[in-house]
Amino acid sequence: MSEFEPISFYLVSCSLVSLIPLGLPFPFSSNSWTYPEKLSAYECGFDPSGDARSRFDIRFYLVSILFIIPDPEVTFSFPWAVSPNKIDPFGSWSMMAFLLILTIGSLYEWKRGASDRE
Questions:
Q1: Could you give the CA distance from residue 114 to residue 116 in angstroms, rounded to a whole number?
Q2: Global pTM?
Q3: Closest to 96 measured CA to CA, from 107, 86, 84
Q4: d(CA 94, CA 85)
């Protein structure tokens, strides 16, 4: 059981470090649910106008897709960058092919004007 003590101490301390800042403001906060003005919708100081379920322009989705591309690149290249001397040639060439596909996708989006602002 002694070999699990550092792990259990780590888990307990991480839980406390993450949960204490979440619960600490509640005893010091006022009763915000009693103020009806706090529960009303806020839109830059004006009363809300229009429906919240209106359609968005397709460019918002294109920009979000544009920013999703670097996420798997960073995720999959991190182990490759941490220990490059322990990866065999197949792993290196697989990573190069992956980076090539992402580069082609980024160049395609750039060529199509996905990042242009109008």
A1: 6
A2: 0.45
A3: 84
A4: 15
Q: What is the pLDDT along the chain (118 residues), one digit of tens a residue?
A: 688 898 999 999 999 999 999 988 888 876 656 666 666 666 666 666 667 677 777 777 777 777 777 787 778 777 777 777 788 888 888 888 988 988 888 888 788 776 676 6
- What is the rounded end-to-end Cα distance, in angstroms, of the chain? 63
DSSP states of 33-100: GG-HHHHS--BTTB---S-TTPPPPHHHHHHHHHHHTHHHHHHHHHHHHH-GGGS-HHHHHHHHHHHH
Q: 63-80 burial by CB neighbour count: b if 16+ within 10 A, else e?
A: eeeeeeeeeeeeeeeeeb
Domains of the chain in start order, with CATH, are: 4-112 (1.20.58.1610)
